[in-house]
TrEMBL record:
<dbReference type="Pfam" id="PF05686">
    <property type="entry name" value="Glyco_transf_90"/>
</dbReference>
<dbReference type="InterPro" id="IPR051091">
    <property type="entry name" value="O-Glucosyltr/Glycosyltrsf_90"/>
</dbReference>
<feature type="domain" description="Glycosyl transferase CAP10">
    <location>
        <begin position="175"/>
        <end position="425"/>
    </location>
</feature>
<keyword id="KW-0472">Membrane</keyword>
<feature type="transmembrane region" description="Helical">
    <location>
        <begin position="24"/>
        <end position="46"/>
    </location>
</feature>
<keyword id="KW-0812">Transmembrane</keyword>
<keyword id="KW-1133">Transmembrane helix</keyword>
<protein>
    <recommendedName>
        <fullName>Glycosyl transferase CAP10 domain-containing protein</fullName>
    </recommendedName>
</protein>
<dbReference type="InterPro" id="IPR006598">
    <property type="entry name" value="CAP10"/>
</dbReference>
């Protein structure tokens, strides 16, 4: 008898995905009735009850959570009242602690990014200096989000960044501490470390950005594209990750074209203009590269036929090169199962510091790039299993350590650590407005609206955030940097030897 219930329970759960997650117990029960022709109605009712009851544990609990709590956008109400809905949970409860885990190692750089303020804390004066460069001030107070806008950002970076913060609040209601921060949506880091530690400077300004470099104070957070980049048809990260995983299956690594692939806009930086010179058509030598210019305007006219990330995993090697600063393409390139030929960067994103040369990517010089690329491609084609290993390691890093849950956890932990340092009580300035998902999405249309719907957090998670690993001690930070430098030097030595023998 019990075995029969178990089978029923399994088939119920197998049916669930096609029903979507908004179904409820009643739908499932009626399906039982339709499908189970040979079982009596009475029996089914009992079985159904027992499902939720006997085999309870996690599955049934999740099931109920989803049934009770689902908060789609309330645009009708918002249109009429222009006020944010009041029914969303304000506390993070019903927690399932069985999945507790430690955050990936790259989270430990959070402490490094905040170390400049460890001794002094963060004063209001420091925050106000950062205003000079900010697009908006973000305020979290009693679990609600407010924004004071200073200027318009490029495209809709500011909108999607705010959307990301808002979704974080929906995922972990009540868990984000009160805070005020300044956010700059432009590309390059702003505040040089040295400049702000000389007297009579009032102290280092904390400014949040998408990338930084080792000479700058700027604190890094995930960029807008994790929630979608409508202007380039780049879907929200959770959707993209699945697409890339599927795309990777299309062509096995060994069957991929044995060249290094890049597609992008070369006119944004000198180093990219140099890269294009390495293309087989622009040179007498085949450097093992296949490079293509991305014309975003033409792409938008032709429905982005050539810009599907998941269709770009057909070459054995992929090149990552910075543009005006870091490039959003980094995470997509590194997820292809093909080793990334990573041209020596200047900037880092919040996750890049978690990756190691020769383990997650192959380092490429930014001077004499063509020779460096040719060597890398030839080396990989000679050492296919090692090359495949590197490609798989970066894919695993991107698929596992950077799944959307960890993106939110990174934001949560960074904001929590930041808020601990604040020496003043956050307040809502007169020009600030409350933001909620409705105030952003209900007025949006087209891709903007679609991406917001797709990345909307519909109910609070019942999972607890991953727990922060301890800070690195200074000698470990040094060892990590030394190890990376050593790996890069090693490749450069191989390369030099190879080219010496060619001449
Ligand atoms: C809300 O108002 C906007 C603009 O007036 C409109 O485009 C949208 O369709 C409305 N949404 C609903 C659900 O009524
Ligand atoms: C690079 O070479 C490939 C293959 O010959 C060619 O199709 C492509 O158009 C070239 N790209 C540029 C930017 O010249
Ligand atoms: C524009 O895109 C279409 C479709 O992908 C392509 O066939 C065409 O060659 C492109 N035109 C230019 C000028 O790049
Ligand atoms: C790859 O193998 C060929 C043939 O053994 C050899 O001539 C070449 O130097 C090798 N290249 C590299 C980069 O290992
Ligand atoms: C540095 O590399 C050495 C040798 O490969 C290794 O044993 C050590 O754990 C590495 N240190 C760090 C901090 O990664």
């Amino acid at each position: 008898m019990k075995g029969l219930y178990k089978d029923k329970w399994k088939s119920t759960h197998r049916l669930r995905p096609s029903l979507g997650h908004r179904n409820n117990a009643i739908t499932v029960c009626s399906l039982f009735v339709l499908v189970g022709v040979f079982v009596s109605v009475m029996f089914l009712l009992v079985a159904c009850r027992l499902n939720l009851y006997m085999f309870s544990g996690q599955q049934a609990l999740k099931f109920q959570t989803k049934m009770d709590q689902n908060f789609p956008l309330e645009c009708l109400a918002w249109n009429q009242t222009l006020s944010c809905p009041k029914n969303y949970p304000t506390t993070h409860t019903n927690l399932d602690r069985s999945q507790a885990n430690t955050c990936p190692d790259y989270f430990r750089w959070i402490y490094e990014d905040l170390r400049h303020w460890r001794a002094t804390g963060i004063t209001r004066d420091m925050v106000e200096i950062a205003k000079q460069s900010a697009h908006f001030r973000l305020i979290v107070l009693d679990g609600k989000l407010y924004v004071e806008k200073f200027r318009k950002s490029i495209q809709t970076r500011d909108l999607f960044t705010l959307w990301g913060f808002q979704q974080l609040l929906r995922l972990y209601p009540g868990r984000i501490p009160d805070l005020e921060l300044m956010f700059d949506c432009d590309d390059r880091p702003v505040y040089n470390i040295k400049q702000y530690f000389r007297r009579p400077n009032p102290g280092p300004p904390p400014l949040f950005k998408y990338c930084s470099d080792p000479l700058s104070l700027d604190i890094v957070l995930p960029d807008w594209s994790f929630w979608g980049w409508a202007e380039t048809n780049q879907k929200p990260w959770e959707v993209t990750l699945k697409d890339i995983k599927e795309g990777n299956k299309k062509v096995k690594w060994k069957d991929r074209a044995p060249f290094a692939y890049w597609r992008g806009n070369p006119s944004v930086s000198n180093v990219r203009a140099d890269l294009i010179k390495c293309n087989v058509t622009n040179s007498n030598v085949d450097w093992g590269t296949r490079l293509f210019i991305q014309d975003w305007i033409n792409e938008s006219v032709h429905g982005y036929k050539n810009s599907n990330i998941e269709d770009q995993c057909t070459y054995r090697y992929k090149i990552y090169i910075e543009g005006w600063s870091w490039s959003v393409s980094e995470k997509y390139i590194m997820a292809c199962d093909s080793p990334t030929l990573y041209i020596t960067p200047r900037y880092y994103t919040f996750f890049a510091r978690g990756m190691t040369p020769l383990e997650h990517f192959w380092p490429i010089r930014n001077t004499d790039m063509c020779k460096s690329l040719k060597f890398a491609v030839e080396w990989g084609n000679n050492h296919t299993s090692k090359a495949q290993e590197i490609g798989e390691a970066s894919s695993r890093f991107i698929q596992e350590d950077m799944k959307m849950g960890y993106i939110y956890d990174y934001m949560l932990h960074l904001l929590t650590e930041y808020a601990k340092l604040l020496k003043f009580k956050p307040t809502i300035p007169p020009n600030a407005v409350e933001v909620c998902s409705e105030s952003m999405a209900c007025l949006a249309d087209g891709k903007w609206r679609q991406f917001m719907e797709e990345s909307l957090v519909r109910y609070p998670t019942n999972a607890i955030p991953c727990s922060m690993p301890p800070p690195y001690d200074p000698s470990t930070v040094k060892a990590i940097i030394d190890n990376k430098t050593r790996a890069i030097k090693q490749v450069e030595m191989w390369e030099d030897e190879y080219w010496k023998n060619q001449n």
